[in-house]
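Can't paste images in this forum, so I'm doing it all in text. The chain is below; anyone willing to post the predicted structure tokens underneath?
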Amino acid sequence: MAVHIEHDLDRCVDQIIQTVGKQIVVGTPLGLGKANLLLNALYARAVADPSLSLTIFTALTLDVPTPRPGIEQRFMAPLLSRWFDGYPHLDYARARNTGSLPTNVTVHEFFMSPGKFLRNVVAQQKLHQHQLHACRSRYAQSGRQCGGADGECDADSGTP
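Text version of the structure:
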């Protein structure tokens, strides 16, 4: 397979849809290291086109904290500036936080901040998944092989 490097995110999303179809399943790394700009482009396309289905598997979504006004803001501002300056926010995380994630977008996340989504019905019902079931869920979603170091996965047990 020839490697093609694409620098335009819209054309990259077009190529992904052309290659995999309208059911897009994305696996992302833990915390930092996600392709935030590409994930935002895929999410924006799914929001704009409800016929697309976007499923995101991730261990943890790093979401920049939003401090409340007052002392919390004054304390956090220098830290946020130092740690997250230039870090692109994930649009699906913002939508999830406000309970406005579209029905054609699903996020499966292994770890969540304790108590963060107590009053968020979507997060409580759709977003949590234990890491032991990750392989089985990816396999069921894609119908393709998934796995650990050797590339194998026991689809019945969900273990690599």
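The first strand starts at residue 23 and ends at 27. Confidence is low (pLDDT under 50) at residues 145-160.
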